[in-house]
Specification:
Blueprint (H helix, E strand, L loop, with lengths): L18 E5 L4 E5 L23 E4 L5 E4 L2 H7 L5 H13 L21 E6 L3 H9 L5 E7 L3 E3 L4 H4 L10 E3 H4 L4 E4 L1 E6 L4 E10 L2 E10 L2 E4 L4 E2 L7 H4 L6 H18 L6 H7 L1 E5 L3 H21 L8 E6 L10 H11 L14 E5 L3 E4 L3 E4 L4 E3 L2 E4 L3 E2 L2 H9 L5 H8 L3 E3 L12 E3 L4 E3 L9 H16 L2 E2 L13 E2 L8 H10 L15 E4 L5 E8 L13 E5 L1 H14 L4 H17 L7
Parallel strand pairs: 5-6, 5-13, 6-9, 13-24, 15-16, 15-21, 16-17, 23-25
Antiparallel strand pairs: 1-2, 3-4, 7-8, 10-11, 11-12, 14-22, 18-19, 19-20, 26-27, 28-29, 29-30
């Protein structure tokens, strides 16, 4: 059976004791690992800072060890590593570590005599996929819980929504990413961090009959990677009348809606006003999602419109609505101007009057959406045939429930910077989670870098970071005498470290403490239509606070055909498997030769 029944849902009895060697400043003392100790409530959400000056391991009256690390060492470890060394670390991780003779896959693990810990991952997005690729399943029992049994390459959903690529070409089953993990097709409805229990619900079908089934799953470590949902900011009518673009199902619905609009506009006895209404597409939000969808829709009109709907093209209108004074906020001003120029370009089609279908409306706030109109706070309104809402994201209900479950811990103070997301420390441990709960991706907020962008790039790097942190046997629940967590420490002092770990240790001046997560900005991309794209690559960081006006990083700006080549190359390189690379390439060739498919399925 695919799911665990309530009576047998306990995957494995969590460990209560385990002998480990914990290295100190002078000696390595053998100690018994403690059972999880609830963290003491604190007024702030900073990393715990014990005031001792050395690293020592002591034993309490009930034979449980505690770890003491000086405040100076914690402060030193959590500082941002110098950019040149951090870049060398990431380069070594990518090109040297896979071929390193220092990897420990063939060496006996210090945990090998103990039962495997149960790691449960919620979600199958970018962070979860990266974690599954890097986790050592010989050391852990890994279970993935998600109602979606596949990973989707979300940046290409805009192309899939107009038929530029096939939906199956940008998805990969979770079981293919790592076939040594257990997958449960279910949705997590509640989490009890006091009993380490996840309540789940699944839909079980036999023939044409379906029913829901509820069950519980226990965990030793919980990885929270559920992402986020599109937020409506309480705008009336958005949920009822607007499309989103977060899932494959959303893209399928949009593709059908676009074709339906053209087919409806071609019916007899319609006035010109009615035809124009059917062929008006309103896109709320001028971030990368909204801009790339508008660009793909323009390509569809320019390349395939003359073949299928030539007589309807003069009536097509694309309205991009943005509440801010500019589009594509992460890009430099020159790149924004290029995007506007490309989107508002004139389209020349033989036998059709000159077209300029796209219009960008800035400083326009939506007040309400109805079945036929989008209303604005300044009193204007637009009649439309299809609308897309891409104006922001917010936490899922399960994330909100988890924050509330930790309300009596330091997580309450962490909400000052997390604002509805799960506040995590620099090692992605949920604040107040006793070292047993981790969060990454759009559902989390890191305490020392709270302004990380909500992108696939961040989630992927965080998932890979956690996979290596676990696989390298760092003690992630190391605690001080008062129960507060201290930085993860290396369980085996004699373990051979990889090249990237050695560089990180050198950069920190610290060999025992695990290097905290640090984000490497690899740049941002945006397709602007007609074989043109923007690529903004950061080659050196700015100085000081990234949110200050004086922070001015060195960025390489590429646009036009060269940017388009880089955009396609990177999207192919980041595909999950060689199969996806082949399928996406064939889709691009197929569209070039035969056009996009307009079947309504």
């Amino acid at each position: 059976q695919a799911f665990v029944s309530p009576a047998t849902s306990r995957l494995q009895v969590p460990r209560s004791t385990l002998v480990r060697n914990v290295e100190t400043d002078e000696t390595a003392e053998e100690a018994m690992e403690p059972e999880p100790t609830p963290a003491a409530p604190a007024a702030t959400a900073t990393v715990p800072e014990p005031t001792t000056t050395t690293t020592t391991t002591t034993t309490t009256s009930n034979n449980k060890p505690t770890i003491k690390i000086s405040r100076e060492r914690i402060e030193k470890a959590t500082k941002e590593r110098p950019y040149p060394l951090f870049l060398a670390e990431k380069t070594a991780s990518l090109f040297l570590d896979p071929f390193s003779n220092n990897n420990n896959n063939n060496l006996p693990s210090p945990l090998s005599t103990a039962p495997k810990e149960n790691i449960v991952i919620l979600g199958t997005g970018w962070g979860a996929a990266a974690f599954l690729k890097s986790i050592d399943t010989d050391k852990f029992d890994v279970t993935v819980i998600s109602p979606r049994n596949y990973f989707v390459f979300t940046p290409m959903l805009a192309g899939a929504s107009v038929g530029s690529v096939d939906f199956k070409s940008i998805t990969e089953p979770i079981r293919e990413i790592n076939n040594n993990v257990r997958y449960l097709e279910a949705a997590a409805t509640d989490i009890d961090p006091t009993t380490n229990t996840i309540s789940c619900i699944a839909i079980v079908c036999e023939g044409n009959s379906c029913e829901t089934k509820e069950f519980d799953v226990n965990y030793d470590r919980l990885l929270f990677s559920v992402g986020a949902q599109t937020t409506t900011f309480g705008t009336p009518g958005v949920e009822e009348y607007c499309n989103y673009l977060k899932q494959v199902g959303d893209a399928q619905q949009i593709k059908n809606a676009i074709v339906n609009c053209f087919e409806s506009a071609g019916l007899p006895d319609l006035t010109e006003a009615e035809i124009q209404k059917e062929l008006t597409f309103v896109i709320v939000g001028a971030g990368p999602t909204g801009i790339e969808f508008a660009a793909e829709l323009l390509d569809f009109i320019e390349e395939n419109g003359p073949r299928y709907y030539k007589q309807l093209l003069p009536y097509v209108r694309i309205k991009i609505v943005e509440a801010a004074p500019s589009i594509l906020r992460p890009f430099e001003d020159g790149m924004k101007d290029e995007a506007i120029r490309r989107l508002t370009r004139t389209i020349e089609i033989e036998g059709v009057a000159t077209l300029r279908p796209c219009e960008i409306l800035l400083n326009k706030q939506v007040s309400e959406v109805t079945a036929n109109y989008v209303y604005f706070k300044d009193g204007d309104k637009i009649q439309y045939g299809m609308s897309l809402w891409a104006a922001g994201i917010g936490p899922l209900p399960i994330t909100t429930n988890m924050v509330e479950a930790l309300e009596d811990t330091e997580q309450k103070g962490a909400q000052e910077f997390a604002r509805g997301r799960l506040g995590v420390d620099p090692w992605l441990r949920v604040i107040g989670g006793k070292g047993e709960v981790f969060a990454f991706g759009d559902c989390s907020c890191v305490s020392n870098t709270p302004m990380l962008p909500a992108t696939a790039q961040v989630a992927s790097q965080q998932g890979e970071f956690l996979g290596k942190l676990f696989s390298n046997d760092y003690r992630v629940d190391a605690a001080a005498a008062d129960g507060q967590l201290v930085p993860p420490v290396d369980v085996d002092p004699n373990r051979s470290k990889s090249f990237s770990e050695q560089i990180a240790s050198f950069a920190m001046g610290e060999s025992e403490i695990a290097a905290p997560f640090q984000y490497l900005d690899l740049g941002i991309l945006a397709y602007t239509g007609s074989g043109s794209a923007l690529a903004q690559v950061q080659v050196a960081p700015g100085k000081g606070d990234p949110m200050s006006e004086t922070w001015n990083p060195v960025r390489l700006q590429i646009k036009g055909k060269l940017g388009f080549g880089l955009w396609r190359s990177i999207y192919l390189w980041k595909q999950t498997s060689p199969k996806n690379v082949v399928l996406v390439t064939l889709d691009w060739i197929k569209v070039k030769l035969f056009g996009r498919d307009i079947s309504i399925l």
